[in-house]
Amino acid sequence: MNRYPVWKYAIIVIVLLVGLIYALPNFFGEAPAVQVSSAKSTVKVDDSTRTRVEAALKAGNLQPDLLTLDGSSVRARFITTDDQLKARDVLQHALVPDPSDPPYVVALNLVSRSPHWLTALHAFPMYLGLDLRGGVHFMLQVDMKGALDKKAETLASDLRQTLRDRSIRGTSVSRNGQTVEVRFRDQPSLEATQRIIQDQFADLAATASQEGNEWRLTASFKPEAARRLQDAALKQNITTLHNRINELGVAEPVIQQQGVDRIVVQLPGVQDTAKAKDILGRTATLELRMVDESAEARAAETGSGPVPFGSEKFQERDGRPVIVKKQVIITGENLSDAQPGFDQQTQQPKVDLTVDAKGGRIMRDISRDNIGKRMAILLFEKGKGEVLTAPAIRGELGTRFQISGSMNVVEANDLALLLRAGSLAAPMEIIEESTIGPSLGADNIEKGFKSVAYGFLAIMIFMCAYYALFGLFSSIALAVNLLLLVAILSMLQATLTLPGIAAMALAIGVAIDSNVLINERVREELRNGASPQAAIHAGYDRAWNTILDSNVTTLIAGIALLAFGSGPVRGFAVVHCIGIVTSMFSAVFFSRGLVNFWYGRKKKLKGVSIGTVWRPDTAAVADNK
Amino acid sequence: MEFFRIHRTIPFMRHALVLNAISVITFLLAVFFLFSRGLHLSVEFTGGTVMEVAYQQTADLGKVREAIGKLGFQDVQVQNFGTSRDVMIRLPAAKGVSSAQQSAQVIDALKATDPSVQLRRNEFVGPQVGDELTTNGLKALGMVVVGIMVYLAFRFEWKFALATVLANLHDVVIILGFFAFFQWEFSLAVLAAVLAVLGYSVNESVVIFDRIRENFRRYRKMSTVEIIDNAITSTISRTIITHGSTQLVVLSMFFFGGPTLHYFALALTIGICFGIYSSAFVAAAIAMWLGVKREDLVKNPAKRDGDPDDPNAGAVV
Question: CA-to-CA distance for A357 and A355, rounded, in angstroms?
C-alpha cells in the first residue's frame, strides 16, 4: 500500500531537476561587469554595438570573461574589479566621444557568474532588492490636481482667444478650479459658444444655466478626458525621468508607475542621493528664438568672424553651429503639447505643436513679420543650451503649428519627446526616500543568510535526533522546499528583500509543521498497535486533511498581506505565499515518496525508524479508548 | 526520544474557567497599555527622516546630539543601533525644510565633528504615506479575519470559526500590548510578523478542531468535554514540537538577523508562545462555551430514531 507508481517518481525527479537548474545560478555569485546601454531613444543597442564593444576592449588589451547582448544592453563580464574599471574607462572613451552628449550609458554592474548554458535557459539568480544591494529609492507623488488645473487654465485662455476671434462679444471667461466658466449677456452667444466647445474643445463638457439676465456656461473635463490627461501626464513624467536618469549611468534603474498617481524610482548602486534628487527634480527649459541671419552672423557661423552683438552661438544636435538672437519669443511654459504625426498631404513625418493662447498671439505677430526666416527651438539643460531644430517659417502661425520636412519617423518621435521633456507635465513631490549603503546591503545579505542557515541546521539536528530516519526524510524534504522556493523566486525574478529572507526562514518553520504532524501521526498509529506499513499509510492519510486546512488558513493571511501590503510587507508576503505552496509539495508528496521508496517494497516490515514509540501501560491505553 | 509520556487524558477543560480568566486579564492589560502608552510607531507610519550613520570608533552620542541640536530641529532622537559604532538618528518631518536638506545638514554637521562618519542608510517618508499604511494594515487584518472565518465556517462550523478568530485576535492584541508596554519600535516588518502570526497560529486551532471532529466520529460515547480533552492531549506533543521548531528558526533570526530583523523575530516569538497557549486553551474553551455538539460536526448519513449516542440505535434485526 505504500508504493508510488512510476509516474509519481517521475514527477518528483522532474521537479527536482527543474528546481536545481533554476536555483543553480544563485550559487555562482556575481562578477564585476560593465554594461553599455542606450542613453537616447534614437540610439539602438544591437549586435553592431556588441562588435564595437568587443573591438574597443580588444584595442584596450582587455579580455572579457563573457560578452553578451541581452535585451537592450551589452554586458562585458570580468574576473577582477581592476579589469572592470579599466574596461569602463576604455569603453567610455571609445563609445562616448562627447561626455556632454552621451549616446550610450556605460555603467558598472554586477552580473551572475553562472555559466552560459544556464543563462541560455533563462536561469538567472534572484533579483536582490535595494536593501540587499544598496542604492537609492524614491517614491514620487504626481500632483494630478496641479496638472488638471494647468490644463484648465490653458483651455480657458484658448477659449477666450477663440471667442474673441469669432467676435462673440460681451462674454467673460474665468477658471474656477478645474472648471471653466463663461458668462454671457444674451442667449445667441451662449449657443454659439456651446457649439464652439463641442467642436473644438473635445475634452470639455459644458452645461448651460440661466440666472436672471445672465446666461452662464460651466465647462468641466469629461471623466474620460480627465483620466486620459492624467495618464498622459504620468507617462510623460516617467519618460522625462528616464531621460534624466540615463545621465546618472545607473545599470538597472527601475522607474515604475505605482497606483494612479505615483512613480517609484529605484537606482541600485547609486549612493549620491543629493545628485540623484537634483537630477530628478531638475526642470529643463525650452525657448523659441529667431535665428540671426545677418551677414555678420553668417560669418560667425563659419567661424570667420565674431558673434554679433545681441546674438549667441549654439550648436545643433549634429554639431553645426547656429547663431541665435538673444531675445526670447516664447518659452516652454507656453508650449502645451508636442506630438509626432504625418502630414496628410505630403505623407512626411511631422511634429504638431500646440501653444497656449498667449503664445499663439505672440507667434502670430512674430511669424507674420518673419515669413521665410528661421526660428530656433532651444533646450536648456544643466545651464547648457542646444538647438533642437531650426525650421524656416512658411506662413502665419497660430496656437497650433507644425514642424515638418527633412525628418524621418524616429527623428520626429525624438523631437516631440525632447520638446515635451522641457518640463514635467505635472509637478511632482518626493514622498518617500531611502538610501542604503552598499556595506549595509552586504551585511543584510550575510545576516539573512546566517539566520536561515542556522535555523535550518538546528531544525535538522532536532528532527534527526527525535524522529531518527523519518527525521532525516523530513530534513531532506525541508531542503527540497528551500531549493524549490529559491528556484521559483529566481524564475519569477521576484525582488528578494530582507523581509523576504525572513519569510524564507519562517517558511522553514511552517514547512516542518507538516512533517511533524505526519510523524506524530505515524507514531500514534504505531502506539495504538497498527502494523508499520499500515501506520505509515494511515499517518500520511490522516495528517493530509489537517495539513491542507492549516496551510490554507496560513495562505489566506499571506494573500491578505500581498493584497494590502506595500514595500517590505509585500516582499515578505510573496516569499511567504510561495513557501506555503512549495511546502505542500515537499512535505507531503516528496517526503511520502522518500518513505515509500525506502519502506514500501518491504513486505514483512518489522518496524520503522521513527524514534521512540512509547506506549503507556495497558490500563492507560484502555482508559483512552 | 519521546518528550511526552502522557499516561492519560489531561482534563484541560476542567480548568477552562481559570485559563479563560487569565486570557481575559492579559487581554485587558494589553488593551490598557495600548491605550495608555500607545505604540512606538516607526518612521514608516509617522513620516519623517531616519538616518543611520557609522563611525570608525565607538560613537559619542552626546556629541552627536549636540551637533544636531545646533541645527535647531525639534524632537530629534539619537540612539545606538546594533553596535556601539552605529548611530540611528530620527528627525520628524519639518515644515519648510525638505528631507534632502535635512539629512544633508545633519551629515555635514556630523562630518564637522568627526570626518570618519559614514552614512549607511537614509530614509524619508512623507506623512501621507504613513496614513495609507495604517489603513492598509487594518484592511489586511480585516481581510485575514474574514477570510479565515469564512474558510473555517465552511470546513467546520461557525462556532469553531468564531472561537478560532477570537483566540487569535487575542494573540494579536497581546503582541501589540507587549510592543506598547516596552515601547519597542513597531515597524512595517513587525506588522507583517503580526499578520503572519495570525495565519500561523490559526494552524494550531485547526489541528485541534480537526482532532475534535475525528474524535466525535470515533468515540461515540464520550461527552463533548472528554472529547475536547482527548483531542488536546493527543495533539499537544505535535503542537509543542512544531512551535519549538519554528521557534528555533525565529531565535536564529533573533540572534543572527541583525537589528532589522530583531523586532520582527521578537513579535514572532511572543506570537508563537501565546499561539500555543491560546489555541490549546482559549479556542477550544470558547468553542465549548459556544456549545459545540457532535451533531455540528458529524453529519449522519441516515436519519435514526432515538439516542444518537446509542451504539445499537441503528441496528435492526
Answer: 7
* Closest Cα in chain A to B191: A569
Candidates A433, A463, A555; nearest CB to B124: A433
At B73-119, the pLDDT tens digits run: 777 778 787 777 888 888 877 666 666 677 778 888 888 888 888 88
pLDDT digits (tens, 9 = 90+) for A306-343: 888 878 888 887 778 888 888 888 877 777 777 788 88
Q: Could you tell me the end-to-end alpha-carbon distance of chain B, in angstroms, rounded to an integer?
A: 50
Evaluate whether residue B304 is within a structural domain.
no
- The predicted-structure confidence for A419-460, as pLDDT tens digits, reads as follows 766 555 667 777 888 888 777 888 888 888 999 999 999 999
| Phi/psi of residue A234, nearest 5 degrees | -65, -45
Contact A566 B136 (CB under 8 A): yes
Residue in chain B closest to A545 (alpha carbons) equals B210
Residues of B in contact with A508 (CB under 8 A): 249
Which chain A residues have a beta carbon less than 8 Å from that of B52? 440
Across the A:B interface, residue pairs with CB atoms under 8 Å apart total: 246
Cβ–Cβ under 8 Å, residues A300 and A310 = no
Determine the distance in angstroms separating the CA of A617 from the nearest CA of chain B, rounded to an integer.
Answer: 8
**Dihedral-angle region of residue A546 (phi above 0 means left; psi in -120 to 50 means alpha; beta otherwise):** alpha
> Contact B7/A569, CB-based, under 8 Å?
no
Q: Which of B120, B152, B155 sits opposite A437 (nearest CB)?
A: B120
* Superfamily of segment(s) A30-113: ACT domain (3.30.70.260)
Residue A403 and residue A406: Cα distance in Å, rounded?
Answer: 10
Whole-Å CA distances, A512 to A9, A509, A589 = 22, 5, 14
Radius of gyration of chain B from its Cα atoms, rounded to whole angstroms: 26
pLDDT tens by residue, B174-185: 999 999 999 888
Is B31 among the domain residues? yes
**CA–CA separation, B87 vs B101, rounded Å?**
19
Q: How far is B99 from chain A (nearest CA, A)?
A: 9
Supply B192's cell numbers: 507583517
State the CATH class of domain A6-22+437-624.
mainly alpha
Q: Do B241 and A520 touch (CB under 8 A)?
A: yes
Domain of residue B109, CATH code: 3.30.70.3400
CB contact under 8 A, A557 and B196: yes
CB pair distance less than 8 Å for A454 and B143: no
Domain boundary among B92, B110, B125: B125
Contact call for A569 and B230, based on CB within 8 A: no
| Closest to A64 measured CA to CA, from A72, A54, A73, A74 | A54
Give the nearest partner residue to A556 out of B199, B260, B261, using CB atoms.
B199
Q: In the structure grid, which three cell numbers stand for residue A581, read together?
A: 505552496
**According to CATH, what is the number of the domain A284-423?**
3.30.1360.200
